[in-house]
Amino acid sequence: MPSSVGGGEPLWPLLLYGGLVLVVAVGMLVLSHLLGQRHAARGRNLPFESGLDPTGSARLRYGVHFYAVGIFFILFDVEVVFLYAWAVAFRELGWPGYVEAVLFIGVLFAGLVYVWKWGGLDWSPAARRRARRGSEDEHRSPLG
Predict the structure, then answer these.
(1) Could you give the 3-state DSSP secondary structure of residue 62?
(2) What is the pTM of this model?
(3) What gap in Å lies between CA 121 and CA 116, rounded to an integer?
(4) May I ask the CATH class of domain 64-139?
């Protein structure tokens, strides 16, 4: 077992600290198990819904449009991180940085228009059916 780390500092304080953290964590878990209350009330294992009784199963299936909107939000929200970094370094980047930021926003806008035309931002089922039917008509063969 090495007695020092890198520059000659002893390793035992790190090992002692890690061991003490492990002992405290395990000790808290064991004490809470031994000293904790044990009772089985009627609603003890029910999911909490703001003080109301649950009305149905917690295992509901969501429509795919919820996930699509979530993914679109993440994709378009990441732009804020890049634009913030660009704004911080605005003076150092000059006009080339400005042009690149405008191109970046343009690409994101083109993506937003594509998602909008695709119907990914429409919440009503009728609008999604119309968008799907329109895309099927575009891909239909002129021969029938």
Answers:
(1) coil
(2) 0.44
(3) 6
(4) mainly alpha
